[in-house]
Amino acid sequence: MAGVSACIKYSMFTFNFLFWLCGILILALAIWVRVSNDSQAIFGSEDAGSSSYVAVDILIAVGAIIMILGFLGCCGAIRESRCMLLLFFIGLLLILLLQVATGILGAVFKSKSDRIVNETLYENTKLLSATGESEKQFQEAIIVFQEEFKCCGLVNGAADWGNNFQHYPELCACVDNQRPCQSYNGKQVYKETCISFIKDFLAKNLIIVIGIAFGVAVIEILGLVFSMVLYCQIGNK
């Protein structure tokens, strides 16, 4: 019985140590994105809204919470502290319930979220023809996207760029004969707009996020089982 208890104890410690490392990794990556100059091209546009960094800030909070829970789990396992194990169990259970609630809300309001994405993309179309410094950062990000996916503009093609179309010599230049092209201001540009590619890009990444969330949920359930078994065994000593 003692051998089984020790096995559960050190399995719990190993699990929580890895959980703690995951928290550090999430926190470090989120902070890097938050302060990186490169990320300003994507998130830095003031006209894109004040909530550009909301997702990053949530990741920072999640990383910090996972670090704290991992610490509680490690200490609770090594010190055989029922109090720490109980706090770890409650915290992990709340996170799991929050994930389930988020998934349910995401499924229920999927149509609304699609509408919000459409409205955001249509609203950001005006940034392509603007001349401010913050808008240029957004424009550079779209230019990179256009070159990668061989599209032009967000909604109305090259016309979305307005007078800025003349400021970028290689903008939307149609260099792939296998993609449909059209003439605009005496220049061959890609005919397809980028809005559909952006939606596909978001959808593919959403699938990846769902897969990661499912994997994390499985790990959290294992953590709940390990912590409760160890909690009960410590109480029976």
Mean pLDDT: 79
> What string gives the helices and strands in order?
HHHHHHEEH
Helical stretch count?
A: 7
The neighbouring-strand order within the major sheet is: 1-2
**How far is it from the N-terminal to the C-terminal residue, by CA?**
11 Å
Helix fraction by DSSP (H/I, runs of at least 4): 55-70%
Shape: elongated
Q: Which descriptors would you attach to this protein?
A:
single chain; 237 residues; mainly alpha; two-stranded antiparallel sheet; 7 helices; 3% strand
Structure description:
This protein has 237 residues and is mainly alpha-helical. The protein is built from 7 helices and 2 strands, in the order H-H-H-H-H-H-E-E-H. The chain starts with a helix and ends with a helix.
How is the secondary structure organized here?
Elements: H1 2-35, H2 40-43, H3 54-79, H4 82-108, H5 110-124, H6 133-149, E1 181-184, E2 187-190, H7 195-236
Antiparallel strand pairs: 1-2
